[in-house]
Amino acid sequence: MRHFHAPRVVFGRVVTLRQVVFALLLIYCLTPWASPPIALALGLVLAQTLGNPFAAQTKRLTATLLQFSVVGLGFGMNAHAAAQAGRQGVAFTVVSIFGILILGYFAGRWLGITRSVAHLISCGTAICGGSAIAAVGPVLRAKDEEMSVALGTVFVLNAVALFAFPAIGHALALTQNQFGLWCAIAIHDTSSVVGAATAYGDHALQVATTVKLARALWIIPVSIATAMVFKQKGVKIKIPYFILGFIAAMLLNTFVPAAKPLGPVLVALAKTGLTLTLFFIGAGLSGQVLKAVGARPFLLGVLLWGVIASASLYVIIRTV
């Protein structure tokens, strides 16, 4: 492995072989042959073998790239269908969010996990993974190691969900509508929700994206409630403004005929951006990140995820 890290001069620039490998994988993720699961798998393999040579840069880019990709997906959505999907997911959203936050509190105490870590993992499971943790963490004034543990837990489970959910959906013969709802409720991060739904079908993607982004808006009231419950004063609430961009794109696509020809191009770019986002996320799951999680926080994450995934699947199959 040492020769992959050794610097070489190529065309007057100093590079390493692992940087070349990273660049080749990145280029592949930009091609039509790459899919979100493949991109995530390539990133994971890179992280566990050569390591990510641009870890700091990809960490900064991931959130921005995901937000632009989500806005781009709005140009493939119909506002009327999205409103219907959003109404359908409201009851699931409210019950599941409060249920997981309450269960996470008691399960965290039972497992002997600090209150902050338990709350961060619960928020990540209940709302929207890393985005919720990033928003609630500063409100809690969580330490860096607490944030790392919570983020590592949900990112590992996200990776599992991206591969497992489409297979389970096909095995149970879920409809596009059922699978989209299940993804939005039971998978943590928007990136993995969109990736799994993309693999299942276009209608599943529309339902999953709409319901998940409506769910993400709960970051605001949950952050405010966190500040009150944990008695934190003078903290700043992080608002997911990119959701407004998604709504604007969806409205343009539905009501402005001149915007329709741009839709397929922007959606294709958004899907490529999502694939690249998942490659970056996979490349960030290094051995150090996995070791930092610890057994008890990971057990809490698995417990909460198992409850929300199984309970929501049962209800959706019975009622949708």
Number of helices: 15
- Measured on Cα atoms, how large is the radius of gyration? 20 Å
What is the count of structural domains? 1
- Could you list the spans in which at least 5 consecutive residues all have pLDDT below 50? none
**Structural class by sheet pairing and helices:** mainly alpha
Q: Give the number of DSSP strands.
A: 2
Helix and strand sequence: HEEHHHHHHHHHHHHHH
Using the alpha-carbon principal axes, give the shape.
globular
Main sheet: strand order: 1-2
Main sheet specs: 2 strands, antiparallel
Percent range for β-strand residues: under 5%
Taking all residues together, what is the mean pLDDT? 89
So what's the oligomer here? single chain
Work out the helicity level.
over 70%
Report the span from N to C terminus: 52 Å
Q: What brief labels describe this structure?
A:
320 residues, mainly alpha, two-stranded antiparallel ribbon, 15 helices, 78% helix, transmembrane helix
What do these coordinates show?
- It is a single chain.
- By secondary structure, the chain is mainly alpha-helical.
- It has helices at residues 2-5, 17-29, 36-48, 55-73, 79-111, 115-140, 144-171, 176-186, 190-200, 202-216, 219-229, 242-255, 263-283, 287-293, 295-319; strands at 8-10, 13-15.
- The protein is globular and about 60 Å long.
- The model has no long low-confidence stretch (mean pLDDT 89).
- Belongs to the UPF0324 family.
- Its main location: membrane.
- Keywords: Cell membrane, Membrane, Transmembrane, Transmembrane helix.
- It is a multi-pass membrane protein.
